[in-house]
Amino acid sequence: MSNQNEETTKKEHSGVLVVVERKAGEPTNGSLQLTGKGKELAEQLGVKLIAVILGDDESALKTNAESLIRHSADEVYMIVNPGLAEYHTLPYTKAITQFITTKKPEIVLFNASTTGRDLAPRIAARLETGLTADCTNLLIEDYVDPRTKKEYENVLFQVRPAFGGDVLATIVSPEHFPQMATVRQDVFDTPEADHEKTGLIEKFEVNLDDSDFLLVTEEKIEYKKKTVDLKGAKVIVSGGRGLGKDPEKGFELLHELAEALGGTVGASRGAADKEWIDRGHQVGQTGQTVKPEIYIAFGISGAIQHLAGMQGSRTIIAINKDPNAPIFKYADYGIVGDAFDVLPKMIEMAKSK
Fold it and tell me: What global pTM score does this model have?
């Protein structure tokens, strides 16, 4: 068993908290995905799933809160303040830190978004606890410290790519609470809405003053980055460095196959770096995370950076000249061969259907 001080500290904390982000007045998909995973973790621990949501319109927040209850939350707390209409670092940090200090959850989850990456480390510093960034998986397991042989029960295992994505690292923080993580979007499924589910919805009062609002939003300008939306695609046909002998022809064939299958073209970072295709098509740790029904990879070796973005695909088909390519370990079906030989045959078959 773990030592008495650690046990006492842990007993002071209970519950899994999701810090909810809003976009266009609604909880983001990433936040809803976190409620699904958060509920799974909470059930393993035998605790409640809590959500906290911030804004300036109490009526709108209550509607959001009802949606969060339907999407797995047991309790939702609304922090309402005229200065919280838009995200600003200082007031959001102070408000959420006050909430965590009062409610004492044992786990706190944020989206690994621009907002989450700015907010989470500031809160962790104020709480003097750890934070793992850009997680791709979360697990509850018992843990034995390999140095001290001390045993800990029900520790949050936080899995993330490390060393440039070459390996997957598992991070634990068994003696500091809350255990905190930011989580990449689309690595977990969005839970189905349960319209019969009920839960607690309450306001939470925080102390904010003028010094917390040093920055104000005078004007908001929407900028849309040129990105191909791969997240909703049921079929993705991706190309990598293996198309290097004639990349222009290779990606032309990929587009033809994708069109025949009703899908979209993706790419590895290697292909995007070489400017064979626009970076908006990139799948992987530094690109988009996708979960299509079918993912077909031509000439992609299977580096962890790429696998982190597509390993949740239902069916993976890999085509590579190298029979020892790592991607074959993750593929449901594999073809050892030249992409330029295989592509025309697959296009012909797809068009004949």
Answer: 0.73
